[in-house]
């Protein structure tokens, strides 16, 4: 028991040390963590080489180069980026963020760097032509965006229902596939999507014309904000700003993108998809397996400790075990991940990396399930075994390690392997905090080629292959233990 506690404490301390070391390196080298969206072309998206590019990305890098600082771009999604900024996990957000009076209450904005307005788009063959036609129908919006808030402000007046999505691609596809009749987005983003093949058309004129700005938390990172403004003025003066914008919105660029999409070996074929994205998908799978292994190690140590507490003949320890299992098994994994990644830094002021937050989340959530079957496996051993051992003069600890645990282990092993499989699948939920595991990698690829069905089929096959291998291992281990 003492060894298990020591192992768990060592595991947690190592993770916390790595997380704090990462933060210190960023501070010493003046590297700023900048959050951005996952799917928001032409402002941020992955190109055909799976490199993150776009107007926002290139502007931020050009300004950083001009002002002599470094940036660590984190494509976590708009909603996650805003939450991470509020919790102190990020230094700024550059994600096509419209400057509004409401946002100014919480954030300090840079000088406006792009003019925009909100438009409504419908399927190309839709009969909806104006806002009045939305009555009683479903409209898709993107979580946390100004365009989404604009749609919500019209909801009561025009009598439509809304459904929310975390990324633009799923929002667009909901309309293309007929689940929703319309969606709202910023005009330049919508125009780019339509120009590059999305089967939508704009049905309204731009409304609430405004500007995009780079955001930091109110009263914080003022040095970074000043550097951004000074660097922005410089790239405007030397023409770099115009070159960056034209790189993504000029007719020549859009035509080149269309031509690339029509090639026989493009990403619109199964072979093309696999050939172009295999390195990126394997990188995402490697991250998934890495987080799974560390998560299962932490969950095993944590689960064994809590499970053993539940069988010790002491009401206090049993109560602690039951409470821990009840809390962490009852909390949804997504809620727990967001709380650890965004909630704890808000309370403590200490940054936690997304990977570290993910590992802690898996340790606590999966560890609670592990504790439950550890406790159950021990309790499944006939009580007479313990009574016989104690009657022979063996102390409780030795009776547990020499008599009970060896028998209980045979009962627990299948559950351990199954929990490994469950943990592997649960890593997909961690994409919500911006970890670039296999699921998040898929979202980024789909944002570029809009081949959702094919990409998810490939990713599903990858998960099945890994899970099949783990199942074979499980069956082999069970046979050896019989």
Automatic annotation (TrEMBL):
Residue ranges of coiled coil: none
GO molecular function: ligand-gated monoatomic ion channel activity
Main location per the UniProt record: membrane
Membrane-spanning parts: 289-312, 324-344, 455-477
Keyword Metal-binding: no
Domain of life assignment: Bacteria
Signal peptide start and end residues: 1-27
NCBIfam families listed in its UniProt record: HEQRo_perm_3TM (TIGR01726)
Name listed for the protein in its UniProt record: Glutamine-binding protein glutamine transport system permease protein
Source species of the chain: Ligilactobacillus hayakitensis DSM 18933 = JCM 14209
